Sequence to fold (53 residues):
Amino acid sequence: MVAPLAEARIKPVKFARFDAVAGDMVEIIVGDVVVRAGGDVAADRLIRAVRAA
Fold:
């Protein structure tokens, strides 16, 4: 579950680095944008796509 923060955010949100592995489709939702990628996508490319969203 995602809920709004009760207090102001002091630091920007940071994402953990991850390793993509071959397998199922992954969906990452950022606001109103859905990023879909296969498990075989390069981690750096997926990171750039999520940051652009």
Notes: The chain is about 20% helix and 20% strand. The longest helix spans residues 43-52. Strands lie at 26-30, 33-37.
